Fold this protein.
Amino acid sequence: MKIVNTKFRYPFLLLSVILIASPLFAQEVSKQDGQVDWDKKETEFFDVMKAMQGNHTDAELHQAMGKWLLDSDNQWERATVHFKKAVELDPTLYRSWYGLALIYIDSEKGNEYFRKAIKANPDYPPPYYWLAYNYCRNSKDKEAIPVFEKYVEVATREGSDIEFGRLATSTEVLKELRSGKDGEELKKIRWKSNK
């Protein structure tokens, strides 16, 4: 009889199993005013994750916690703390760099985090797309072209259906950038609200 290795390979999978299986999160943890008590919820959730840690590192747990907080009612300030702790412990965790970049998107700090995500895993397509997108948004077309080209190369090699929409957009944006005229896609990217 062969024993199957039950170690979770991805902390996000571990996180999903915990969320589904844990009765702790079947009901909301609330303050007296009816709002979610995120301090309590975050602490209890991290304790559950630590108890089920298995072979995962603390860095991976912080990454999973950051992802969970970002996805849970957009708790980006709390997520930032965990993503930063994750990359402090293990700078190769490209999804933590990517999470930080999304939190700081449309800023130089966000671009820096996208570059760190790319450095940590050059085969992960999304950071290329968003870095090039930010360059276009800020009319840095010369910087955007090679990054969009690299995105298309990596995303095509990846062969993921998830990247299909961004691949189509990137291909069209590259045509527009090379022509020197803003077409529909560049106009969408460059449009900024008056807020």
Q: What stands out?
A: The mean pLDDT is 80.
